[in-house]
Description:
single chain, 14 helices
Amino acid sequence: MFLKKLLRPRTFVFLAIILLLAFWRPSNEVSDSVLPLPATPTYVPVQPGPLIPDDEASQMMHDLAFGSDPQKAIDTIISDKDTRFIAVFIELMRANQIGLLQGAGYRAHIEALETLSGQSFGDDWPAWVEWYGTTSLKPPPGFTGWKGKVLRRIDPAFEAFLQDDHPSTIRIEEIQWGGVVVDGIPALKNAAMIPADEASYITPEEPVFGISINGDHRAYPLRIMDWHEMANDVVGGVPLSLAYCTLCGAGIAFDGRASNGETYTFGSSGFLFRSNKLMYDHQTHTLWNQITGEPVLGELAGKDIKLDVLPVVVTSWEAWLEQHPDTRVLDINTGYQRPYDPGAAYGSYFASNETMFPVWQRSKLLGTKDRIYALQVDGIPKAYPLKILIEEKVVNDVIGETPVLLIASRGDITVQASGSLTTYNAGGEVRAYYRENETFNPGPDESTVLDSAGNLWQVTEEALVGPNGELAPRLNGHLAYWFGWYTFFPKTLLYGEP
């Protein structure tokens, strides 16, 4: 009855925050940027006996979750030392914790986990997830569909995503429920945009996503996007999806016209993968990785389909308006009832050093949630710490064999969350360009740079424009938290590191 009440439509959008905070493990430290990461136990595999036949394994998964005598299945799995069921027991433990399988052998699941794995994490679900990520374990056949049947108790639509016959390029074991049902975080679709002089709700210092295509300038305030995380729109005649993963700090504008020639629009699946939003397309219901723009589970997965990244910048409303006085801005009357105040949705999370969900692949070269500007050039990923960019203002660099230029001349954007003392960094106005063989320095104001001969170049959304009309084209990247980028690009280059 509690779960039924919790899943009423009007509570969907708040459920995510409540549950995320419930499993958030806050730190007593001021910063994790100088702390070593916790040691991950080494997996010493239990010497397995003969694997349980696939058809019997499938029945055992059913009995563990839905059967009348789950202990019989547990005894057989332990006796045969079938380590494939480690993933199943982790899933069952989590299902118990969120109220899906109350009384279905919770302690027995944990004991089975510890026996099969040789680890002793008890009921610490995040620790199990992070440990499992370091292993090469695989679940029994039929795990995907079984997991879908377990999670359909939250939302029947989840089962459609998790089907055994769906191609996948990711480990299904690492897909986690994010706390909402499908579209529980509702995407905006061609939302109303209003002239700047009609946007009385917005303050000069607050952050916006700025997008400019073919002379069409748009501003999407983060205070609104925090609650929707997706805006399907058409800007300058180009269909795009502004996909915003609040948990990994990345707002990315994707061209809806994918590499296979089809056009897609997107929504929120309710699932996460390594604390990154899994979005889904409305056309095929395939799950996509938000930070890579690639389909990962479903009809389109594994078909070498990708979305191009479009230009987007995080800046203050004041700065964006100064540069684009004819801009339009997202109307606060979205048709949804949300407390659209700065920081109302995730202010405490943004101000924290911690993640809300387990992420096993990390690097201590930067703090977990240090902000970086991420670029990919010729298939080479590189991260630029925002702090360094703001200090240097203009960075001349080379990625592979491509000379690039990054400009961050307006500094940090800091947000004071409404109604609290919470303050957090929202990023900075960073743009990147191809610079060919030229070297640039800061100009006399924030909208210009100087080349090696002292000539003035204008900073625009499409390109740097030289004194004689020369163009240095825009290079599209985005902000992210360090952990959010590193977990998908562990071989990333890092500016400032040898």
